[in-house]
User: Which sequence fits this backbone?
């Protein structure tokens, strides 16, 4: 048990060990260390490390954690594509009534944006290769 | 009074001692055994506050001595504790 307690003493911060290490080891040699002392030394080392953390270290640790989280999120989140376009349509032999032209235009839009048309387009242009292996297009 | 820092100050009020001597002394007068981690946590804090200081030791067993500031702090704490004890005793007395 004494060897374990002495090992736990090495968990103290290095600057603390430079100042108190020798006398702390002498105390561990003198004291009849049991399992209670092992827990006590572990707790002491942890508290000493926590109380020695300065503002710069805390800021650096949080910044690093933020960068890591952002990196992981970028890797695991699916890629999204957004595109916009302006289409100009000219209808040959267009009817004279504007309402009829508008109806034809809406029909064309429905046809272009239909599931069948989009599925065909995605397969032809090989979009979303990873997603298509996991999820069906339907 | 179970605050390790106060126990260390009370032990050193008698005279300079090294870690193990403090541990034994505290066990004798308070009936409480401070673990090595708790004892040296208190010693570190007290030395940083200037309430105790290390005195030259011949070997690794470093003795410590209470400073004038440490004595003043101990006296204040004892006065507070004394007030608490007196108040509690008075309130516990049957009317």
Assistant:
């Amino acid at each position: 048990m004494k060897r374990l307690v002495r090992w736990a003493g090495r968990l103290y911060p290095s600057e603390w060990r430079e100042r108190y290490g020798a006398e702390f080891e002498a105390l561990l040699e003198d004291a009849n260390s049991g399992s209670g002392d092992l827990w006590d030394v572990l707790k002491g080392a942890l508290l000493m490390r926590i109380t020695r953390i300065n503002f710069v270290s805390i800021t650096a640790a949080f910044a690093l954690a933020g960068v890591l989280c952002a990196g992981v999120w970028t890797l695991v989140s699916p890629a999204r594509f957004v595109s916009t376009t302006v289409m100009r349509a000219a209808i040959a032999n267009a009817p004279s009534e504007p309402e009829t032209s508008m109806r034809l235009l809406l029909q064309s839009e429905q046809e272009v944006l239909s599931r069948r048309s989009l599925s065909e387009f995605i397969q032809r242009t090989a979009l979303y290769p990873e997603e298509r292996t996991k999820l069906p297009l339907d | 009074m179970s605050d390790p820092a106060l126990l260390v100050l009370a032990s050193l009020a008698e005279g300079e001692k090294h870690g193990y001597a403090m541990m034994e002394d505290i066990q004798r007068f308070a009936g409480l055994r401070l673990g090595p981690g708790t004892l040296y946590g208190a010693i570190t804090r007290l030395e940083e506050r200037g309430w105790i200081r290390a005195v030259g030791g011949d070997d690794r067993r470093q003795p410590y001595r209470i400073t004038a500031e440490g004595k003043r702090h101990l006296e204040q704490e004892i006065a507070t504790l004394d007030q608490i004890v007196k108040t509690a005793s008075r309130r516990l007395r049957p009317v």
Notes: Chain B has a mean pLDDT of 92. Helices of chain B lie at 4-12, 19-30, 36-49, 68-92.
